[in-house]
Design goal:
Blueprint (H helix, E strand, L loop, with lengths): L4 H7 L6 H16 L1 E7 L5 E7 L1 E5 L17 E4 L1 H9 L6 H7 L3 H14 L6 E4 H8 L6 H18 L4 E5 L2 E5 L11
Antiparallel strand pairs: 1-2, 3-4, 5-7, 6-7
Helix pairs in contact: 5-7, 6-7
C-alpha cells in the first residue's frame, strides 16, 4: 500500500491525521476480531458450513496517528489466516485504486463494485440474480424489496461508472451478470 499510511491515504484523497488514523486502527481491530461462518446447501440436499477468520495475529504500535509521514521504527503487521491467504492467491480480486477513491463516500456502491469485480471476471456464462437474492445479500437495512431496489439501482450506477467494462443487464425480475473483463488487467510474467 506504500511506505507509510500517510502516503496511501493521500493517494486515496483522504485527509490524514489523528482522527483518520484512529478510525483505521479501530476498523483494523474489528476486522482482526471478525469470525466468519459460511453456510451452503449442495445439490444433493446436504448442508455444510465452515468457520474461518481473516487475520490470525498481528503487531501494532499504541501511538497510532502520531507517526504522520515519518517512518516508524517497527512497522505494524498482520498475519492473515492460512485459509484467507490461500483464497486470495487462488481467487484474486483485481481492484482499481481510482475506483476505490471515487467510491470512498458511497459504501453500498463500493460493496457492489468489489462484488462485481469478484464475480464478473470469473463467469463462463450469464448468471441471473433475482431481486430477492440481491436483497438477501445487500439489503440488510431494507425491510421491503421495492425500497431496496431503488437504492440498489442508484448504488449500482455509481459502481458501473467505476467499472466501465462490467456487463450487466437489468430485468424486471433482477439482474443478469455477463462475463466481463476484470476492472484491472492481470499482470503477465
Amino acid at each position: 500500500m506504500g511506505d507509510t499510511m500517510n502516503a496511501w491515504l493521500s493517494r486515496m484523497d483522504i485527509k490524514p491525521g489523528g482522527e483518520t488514523y484512529r478510525a483505521i486502527h479501530d476498523q483494523t481491530k474489528r476486522i482482526a476480531a471478525c469470525r466468519l461462518t459460511f453456510f451452503w446447501e449442495g445439490d444433493d440436499r446436504r448442508e455444510g458450513f465452515r468457520k474461518t477468520s481473516i487475520v490470525d495475529g498481528g503487531f501494532s504500535m499504541t501511538d497510532i496517528g502520531k507517526a504522520g509521514s515519518q517512518r516508524m521504527l517497527w512497522q505494524p503487521t498482520i498475519e492473515l489466516s492460512e485459509a484467507f491467504f490461500k483464497a486470495l492467491n487462488d481467487h484474486p480480486v483485481p481492484l482499481s485504486e481510482a475506483a476505490i477513491r471515487a467510491l470512498k463516500e458511497k459504501s453500498m456502491s463500493l460493496d457492489i463494485y468489489i462484488w462485481l469485480a469478484y464475480r464478473l471476471h470469473s463467469l463462463n456464462k450469464p448468471q441471473r440474480l433475482t431481486w430477492t437474492a440481491l436483497h438477501g445479500q445487500f439489503g440488510g437495512g431494507y425491510k421491503l424489496i421495492r425500497q431496496f431496489k431503488v437504492y440498489f439501482l442508484q448504488a449500482l450506477q455509481a459502481a458501473l461508472a467505476a467499472y466501465p467494462d462490467a456487463r450487466i443487464e437489468l430485468e424486471d425480475e433482477g439482474l443478469v451478470l455477463q462475463p466481463s473483463r476484470p476492472p484491472v488487467a492481470r499482470l503477465t510474467a
